[in-house]
Write a structure and sequence with these properties.
The structure holds two protein chains of two kinds.
Chain A: H1 2-15, E1 23-26, H2 43-56, H3 64-79, H4 82-95, E2 98-103, E3 114-120, H5 121-124, E4 132-142, E5 149-160, E6 167-177, E7 180-182, E8 195-211, E9 216-231, E10 238-239, H6 240-243, E11 255-267, E12 278-290, E13 297-310, E14 316-329, E15 341-343, E16 363-365, E17 367-382, E18 385-399, E19 411-422, E20 425-435, E21 438-444
Parallel strand pairs in A: 8-10
Antiparallel strand pairs in A: 2-3, 3-4, 4-5, 5-6, 6-8, 7-8, 8-9, 9-11, 11-12, 12-13, 13-14, 14-17, 15-16, 17-18, 18-19, 19-20, 20-21
Chain B: H1 2-27, H2 38-44, H3 52-66, H4 71-78, H5 111-116, E1 132-140, E2 143-149, E3 155-160, H6 168-183, E4 190-195, E5 200-209, E6 215-217, H7 220-227, E7 238-244, H8 273-276, H9 278-285, E8 295-302, E9 305-312, H10 339-345, H11 355-362, H12 392-395, H13 399-410, H14 414-422, H15 429-451, E10 457-465, E11 469-476, H16 477-480, E12 489-498, E13 504-513, E14 517-521, E15 530-539, E16 550-556, E17 563-569
Parallel strand pairs in B: 1-5
Antiparallel strand pairs in B: 1-2, 2-3, 3-7, 4-7, 5-6, 8-9, 10-11, 11-14, 12-13, 12-15, 15-16, 16-17
Helix pairs in contact in B: 9-13, 9-15, 13-15, 14-15
The chains are: A mainly beta, B alpha+beta.
Chain lengths: 449, 572
């Protein structure tokens, strides 16, 4: 009994020092080729799993042909090097001075666009000299809601003069649109007064340019403009000459004009297609006179300031643009309505100013004041591709006399947008904005300003 | 009335067609030839093809929409269900298969074996004395490639470095393929070659795709133009990685589902640990181009059995290289189009910069080492590292899968890593040194991370000690690799009985020990009963007990034998 107790005591003492005990390791092969769940590796289980998966994904089946079609096309593009061939084609065209692009109608809208191209003649005909360059351009697009179309044709040449960096430029520009919006003149024009007109314009310009350094340039131009105005052909919309009294709208039958323009510009943007710092400022003085017996006689003064402020990083840009314009009749003359200051729309062209929750050409008047603010911030960047989201705010007003400008009269737009870029070239810019006349969308292939 | 009848007839016809189609789709796969002869087997395996653009569309656009129509996936996402891997054995290891072979895990490879990689006992690759017959060429962007045949008739695909980044892509390929081989993947043989361009002799029928994507005859002159794009070294020598062409290639490996025409391929690939773990290995070697297009199925005969081996190929876009240029700053941090990352940024107005942006800015947006590309460990988070294209198989990585991968990865010593990096033969030894340091540090970051997300105990040994007691010994990998101090590490265990129906009953509450070994007494078990030993570890004074618990299941295989370990589970 005592001996047993001693034996167990002996064992107990060794329990905590078990390494001293005689051990017998029970070995196993950790890499054994038996699966933990052998039934998972049975043909019947695999087939059952496939059947269950097919049933669980029955709703997906209608999408499969899309995947197959697009996927196969993508594969074909890669296998046949179609991407490289396309880049080659674009490069080749560019090398020959041909630059194709997309043309959007003035009423920017998704899915409505047409072809546009510019051809540099000196490159096309391989004329290698630094003194003269010339190009022609043309474009066509269906208008919004396919209400006819817009056409644009033109040409331009530039001659470097032997005096310093002075140059001479000549421009010919023809455009025609089957339907452009017109709501009447003045800040109080009503959206209910929508009518359309058909502008057909021929403009000739002869310009002298005087660069005053790397970023400053002054210009002086002589301009001839011939404008024909017809009724717009948009269905279910009033026609300008039927909707408005002809006597109340100066220039409703078009007319010929000559003008002298002097301008001064400063541009130190780092890149025009995607500015992140620097800015652009311009000031213009113009004098116009009717030449076909029409009583057109007026002055135009315009100014623009754009600036881009990176906020601690070039991935966050605060962009500001201020525009002011005033047309002033001279000697009891008139200003044709199509050359008045215009406001509304989402495209930055030489037409209607950026007030993005309003339709293009929403407001016509002698003067305008406009402020555009954008906060652009990067949401995506992978190699050469990038995308910025834009928070936008526009405030603008048209007025007859500067003294009648009032902050309480400002029309506001706010909204957002997306700029998709490749190597800092804006491929697509889309916006959606809201104001007191509802929502408007816009699309273009360049940054808004 | 007639119209209604007609409509009904059409409807019933359409329904019959749908039922028939469903029947064909469901029954069709079962007709694959199990137990086929080699030739038949080879014929039956479908030779599928894919491309980067197709995968880009499928993964970035199609899957993102289709996932809402896949009710099985919707259910998993709603219920946060995790799927345990199905290709594991009872000891939480991945047995050898056509997907994976335990190499460094089973036996630590010697430095010379590591340096040899898949070329071990095969080599030595193409003889750089030449002549090499050039069969095909390709120019993509700023990089170039040539298909050659050496004097022995073996074919290799030569890949070169971009001119501005000498040694970058070739060293990435040489280093990473050796690591993936040592880890256990099937990879082709890649050789680092330096040769005089004059040994290249274009075959009269040879063609190449020029930089503009047009197929042209590969003349000596065209060859010269191709080689003008690659960096030249001393005495005009050209450096390339020569990948030996595989024979018996049958398409690529899906990362989702299985290849129904392969009778051995019965486990869905997204449930294969060996494929899920590529996410961890990829994060180590920065292999952001892990995708289906960089795999190959190869029909081989091994020990008299015909089987499909799943190869990983193309490692030129690993480490800091993206093959034709250094990696872009977002690589590894975001997918090529990362909808989630984009969606997260929009409402924040980008008040805060992303981690990879901070890192890129801190480096003044410059790649410091052209031969290494863009690769360091700053802002590296093993759990957030991403491949270029998103795959469900990587999303399914469980903690158990990641632990297994991290354990394998940690099996490479500092010396092992240096040996493999040295085999890339950088002209500047500083590059090799720096790259080794990055890989060593990155290995430790990954090991530390994943070991802290499980109970990191391994090499579990069971001994029967006198008196009917058992002793368990294990290695705490966190301690072994220096992530935790032994004196600050504690363990606890408890015993749970498991009856044949799977019901659990606690036998003994938690017992704490401070060494990685302890003894315990097992109650006598009825036939079919098992005992689970649940073990947890705690590292550091204020640490918490590890989760999930390590489960070691003990049972008698026969009545007369002692209890043995029949299962080890690190959890999911």
């Amino acid at each position: 009994m005592v001996l047993s107790a001693v034996f167990f005591l002996f064992l107990a003492l060794f329990a905590d020092a078990s390494s001293l005990l005689a051990e017998k390791e029970i070995s196993y092969d950790p890499y054994i080729s038996i699966l933990k769940y052998p039934e998972a590796n049975q043909p019947k289980t695999a087939e059952k799993r496939n059947r269950n998966q097919f049933l669980a994904r029955i709703l997906e089946q209608p999408l499969r042909p899309i995947e197959y079609g697009v996927g196969k096309t993508a594969q074909w593009v890669e296998e046949k090097h179609m991407d490289q061939k396309t880049i080659w084609l674009v490069d080749e065209l560019s090398l020959h001075g041909i630059h194709p692009s997309l043309k959007f109608p003035t009423d920017g809208s998704f899915g409505t666009f047409g072809p546009e191209a510019m051809v540099e003649l000196d490159k096309l005909f391989k004329i290698q000299q630094p003194y003269v360059s010339a190009d022609v351009f043309g474009g066509w697009t269906p208008n919004k809601d396919f209400a006819g179309s817009s056409v644009e044709l033109g040409g331009h040449y530039e001659v470097q003069l032997p005096l310093g960096h002075m140059y001479h430029e000549g421009n010919v520009h023809y455009s025609r649109s089957s339907a452009e919006r017109f709501y009447g003149i003045g800040q109080d024009s009503s959206p209910g007064n929508l009518s359309t007109y058909q502008p057909e314009e021929l403009a000739l310009e002869s310009k002298l340019g005087f660069p005053l350094g790397q970023t400053v340039e002054s210009t002086a131009s002589f301009i001839f403009q011939r404008m024909n105005i017809g009724n717009g052909n948009r269905e279910r919309v009033g026609k300008i000459k039927e909707h408005f009294p002809i006597a109340g709208i100066p220039g409703i039958n078009g007319g010929d004009l000559i003008g002298l323009v002097a301008g001064l510009g400063h541009d130190n943007r780092d890149r025009e297609s995607d500015p992140k710092h620097g800015g652009y400022e311009s000031l213009g003085f113009s004098y116009f006179h009717g030449v076909d017996g029409k009583d057109f006689h007026y002055l135009k003064v315009s100014g623009e300031v754009s600036h881009y402020f990176p906020i601690a990083s070039d991935r966050r840009i605060f962009a500001v643009r201020l525009v002011a314009e005033k047309n002033q009749e001279l000697g009891g003359g008139q200003i044709p309505f199509y050359n008045l200051s215009r406001l509304g729309g989402s495209g930055r062209s030489d037409g209607s100013g950026l007030l993005r929750s309003y339709n293009y050409n929403r407001f016509f008047e002698e003067g305008l004041a406009l402020a555009n603010f954008e906060y652009r911030y990067n949401i995506y960047e992978y190699g050469d591709f990038a995308a910025d989201v834009v928070a936008l705010f526009d405030a603008g007003e048209v007025f007859e006399e500067i003294g009648r400008f009032g902050f309480d009269e400002l029309r506001l737009s706010y909204g957002g947008g997306l700029n998709i870029k490749f190597r800092r070239r804006t491929l697509l810019s889309v916006t959606i904005a809201h104001g007191d006349e509802g929502w408007q969308t816009g699309a273009q292939t360049k940054v808004s300003f | 009335m007639n119209k209604r009848k007609k409509f009904k007839r059409y409807l019933s016809g359409a329904l019959s067609a749908l039922v028939l189609l469903t029947f064909v789709v469901l029954i069709g796969p079962s007709r694959s030839g199990f137990g086929a002869m080699p030739e038949e087997f080879d014929r039956n395996i479908k030779n599928k093809e894919t491309s980067f653009y197709r995968e880009f569309f499928d993964r970035i656009f199609y899957d993102q929409v289709a996932q809402f129509f896949r009710l099985d996936r919707v259910k998993d996402k709603v219920s946060l269900k995790k799927h345990e891997a199905l290709d594991i054995n009872p000891f939480d290891e991945v047995p050898d298969s056509g997907f994976f072979v335990n190499r460094n895990a089973r036996k630590h490879l010697s430095p010379s074996e590591l340096k040899e990689g898949p070329a071990n006992m095969k080599g030595p690759g193409p003889d750089s004395k030449g002549p090499w017959k050039v069969l095909k060429g390709e120019v993509a962007g700023v990089s170039a490639g040539l298909l050659i045949e050496d004097q022995k008739g073996d074919r290799y695909f030569l890949k070169f470095d971009p001119k501005d980044n000498p040694e970058m892509a070739t060293s990435a390929e040489i280093i990473s393929h050796k690591f993936f081989y040592a880890l256990g993947y099937h990879v082709p043989e890649y050789y680092l070659v330096r040769f005089n361009p004059e040994i290249l002799k274009p075959d009269p029928k040879a063609t190449y795709y020029n930089k503009d994507g047009f197929k042209e005859p590969l003349t000596q002159e065209a060859l010269g133009e191709i080689l003008d794009r690659v960096p030249k070294f001393k005495e005009g020598l050209v450096r390339a990685s020569a990948g030996k062409m595989l024979t018996g290639v049958k398409g690529y490996t899906n990362f989702d589902g299985r290849q129904k025409t392969d009778p051995d391929d019965l486990i869905p690939h997204e449930d294969r640990r060996s494929l899920r773990a590529l996410q961890v290995f990829g994060s180590w070697l920065n292999h952001y181009d892990l995708r289906e297009g960089n795999t190959l199925n190869v029909v081989e005969t091994e020990n008299g059995k015909v089987l499909v081996k799943h190869y990983l190929i193309n490692f030129g876009a690993t480490l800091g290289s993206a093959s034709s240029h250094p990696k872009v700053p977002a690589a590894g941090y975001e997918h090529i189009v990362d909808w989630f990352a984009v969606g997260k940024t929009v409402p924040t107005l980008k008040v805060v910069e992303k981690p990879w942006e901070k890192k890129w800015d801190a480096l003044n947006r410059q790649v410091a080492y052209p031969s290494l590309g863009y690769f360091d460990n700053s802002q590296f988070n093993p759990n957030e590292w991403k491949t270029q294209l998103p795959y469900e198989v990587f999303n399914r990585l469980t903690r158990g899968d990641a632990f297994w991968a991290a354990k394998l990865l940690m099996s490479f010593t500092d010396e092992d890593i240096r040996s493999i990096v040295e085999s890339a033969e950088f002209s500047d030894p500083e590059n090799a040194k720096l790259l080794s340091e990055i890989l060593i540090a990155r290995r430790d970051i990954i090991g530390r991370y994943w070991f802290s997300h499980v109970t990191p105990l391994d090499q579990i040994r069971l001994s029967e000690v006198e008196g009917g007691k058992y002793q368990i010994q294990f290695v705490d990998l966190a301690v072994q690799h220096g992530f935790a101090k032994p004196e600050e590490s504690r363990y606890r265990y408890r015993l749970v009985a498991i009856d044949p129906k799977g019901h659990h009953r606690q036998l003994k509450g938690w017992q704490e020990v401070d060494t990685p070994t302890f003894s315990f007494e097992l109650p006598s078990l009825d036939s079919g009963n098992k005992v689970a030993l649940n073990i947890q570890a705690k590292h550091g004074g204020n640490g918490v007990w590890s989760d999930p618990q390590l489960k070691v299941v003990l049972a008698k295989t026969t009545q007369d034998t002692p209890n043995n370990i029949i299962e080890i589970d690190h959890g999911i």
